[in-house]
């Protein structure tokens, strides 16, 4: 049903000529004639794209600042932007299943980049104490049929993956617009160097840590992060859970873990209601901290130009507090 609806909407858009004048979230500069037009679905692909393409292309984000990334659905204006762009960048995964329907019916010849194709993938998992939704598939690692696996889409949360993504974007933008090859190469090299510094900072924290366990009173979109740095975690829900109303059993389990292991920090992610983290902290004396997963940003943060590096460097400091 949704596929047919998207096809009809796209057909109407193309037939009515509504191909200009669309307001979307962009970089500081408006569209400039002759430059590559890059459209990204949400914040992570947008931020990587604008760092690599700075000075050489116009980059637009479809998701509005402050909106929930997992429940986003494209509007007719969003489909117009995709139809008219030169390069379309998206993450992939369950939250962006709508993309395949749009691309299948797209008449324009555009370059498409999927972040999940740039890195080695991990399946989503349900760890001890975590609530699995009734409609979720089995997230164990014993799949006989790999096609049934549901892979964690939050691939950018490990800086090592962010490096691979940045390099892949740089190479793709060069192919799409060779006239700015030197700009893309310089931007890519500079940004990768900064990401490597960030990666080393996280390793320094982990290598000097007294403990290796994180507690999230929230969704947990950081599977790639903890796998990279060899950390353990307990959380209320998987990263893409749609239901975030915890049961008393889940709250009690996390409270017991904090007390048992004397965990000093309970994390929540950006733009969440923080209620569960508050409850755990009140009962245990732990402090509440935000670990920014770079799903999205507030309008104020967007207008300030804050990005992945800003939020991840803040994460370095709160991780240090949590592991010591």
Blueprint (SSEs and pairs):
Elements: H1 2-16, E1 25-26, E2 36-40, H2 43-53, E3 57-61, H3 76-84, E4 87-90, H4 98-105, E5 111-114, H5 159-176, H6 181-207, E6 213-220, H7 223-229, E7 232-238, H8 248-261, E8 265-268, H9 275-284, E9 287-290, H10 299-304, H11 308-323
Parallel strand pairs: 2-3, 2-4, 4-5, 6-7, 8-9
Antiparallel strand pairs: 1-3
Helix pairs in contact: 1-4, 2-5, 5-6, 6-11, 8-9
From the spread of the alpha carbons, the general shape counts as globular
Note poorly predicted spans: 1-24, 27-31, 133-147
From the helix content, strand content and strand pairing, which structural class follows?
alpha/beta
Q: Order of helices and strands, N to C?
A: HEEHEHEHEHHEHEHEHEHH
Termini separation: 51 Å
Q: Count helical runs.
A: 11
Count of β-strands: 9
Largest sheet descriptor: 5 strands, mixed
Instruction: Tell me the radius of gyration.
Output: 20 Å
Q: Give the strand order, joined by hyphens, for the main sheet.
A: 1-3-2-4-5
Q: What's the rounded overall pLDDT mean? A: 87
User: What level of helicity do the residues show?
Assistant: 40-55%
| Proportion in β-strands | 5-15%
Description:
The chain is α/β, with parallel strands linked by helices. 44% of the residues lie in helices and 13% in strands. The chain contains 11 helices and 9 strands. Strands 1-3-2-4-5 form a 5-stranded mixed β-sheet, with helices on both faces. α5 (159-176) packs antiparallel against α6 and α8 (248-261) packs across α9 (275-284). It is globular and about 60 Å long. Mean pLDDT is 87; it is low at 1-24, 27-31 and 133-147.
């Amino acid at each position: 049903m949704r596929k047919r609806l998207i096809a009809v909407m796209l057909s109407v858009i193309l037939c009515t000529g509504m191909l200009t004048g669309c307001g979307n979230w962009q970089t500081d500069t408006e569209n400039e004639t002759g430059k590559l037009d890059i459209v990204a679905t949400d914040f992570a692909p947008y931020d990587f794209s604008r760092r690599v393409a700075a000075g050489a292309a116009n980059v637009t984000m479809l998701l509005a600042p402050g909106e929930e990334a997992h429940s986003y659905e494209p509007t007719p204006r969003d489909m117009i932007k995709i139809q008219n762009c030169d390069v379309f960048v998206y993450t992939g995964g369950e939250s962006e299943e709508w993309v395949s329907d749009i691309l299948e019916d797209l008449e324009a010849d555009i370059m498409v980049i999927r972040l999940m194709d740039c890195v080695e993938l991990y399946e989503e998992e349900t760890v001890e104490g975590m609530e699995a939704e009734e409609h979720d598939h089995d997230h164990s690692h014993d799949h006989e049929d790999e096609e049934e696996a549901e892979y964690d889409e939050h691939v950018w949360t490990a800086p090592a993956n962010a490096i691979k993504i940045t390099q892949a974007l740089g190479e793709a933008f060069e192919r799409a617009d060779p006239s700015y090859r030197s700009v893309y190469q310089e931007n890519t090299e500079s940004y990768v160097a900064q990401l490597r510094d960030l990666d080393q900072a996280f390793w320094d924290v982990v290598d000097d840590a007294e403990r290796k366990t994180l507690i999230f009173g929230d969704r947990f979109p950081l599977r790639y992060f903890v796998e990279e740095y060899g950390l353990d975690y307990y959380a209320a829900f998987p990263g893409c859970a749609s239901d975030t109303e915890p049961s008393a059993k889940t709250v009690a389990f996390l409270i017991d873990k904090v007390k048992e292991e004397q965990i000093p920090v309970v994390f929540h992610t950006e733009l969440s209601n923080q209620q569960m983290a508050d409850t755990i902290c009140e009962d245990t004396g732990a402090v509440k901290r935000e670990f920014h997963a770079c799903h999205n940003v507030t309008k104020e943060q967007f207008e300030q130009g804050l990005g992945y590096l800003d939020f991840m460097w803040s994460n370095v400091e709160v991780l240090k507090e949590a592991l010591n």
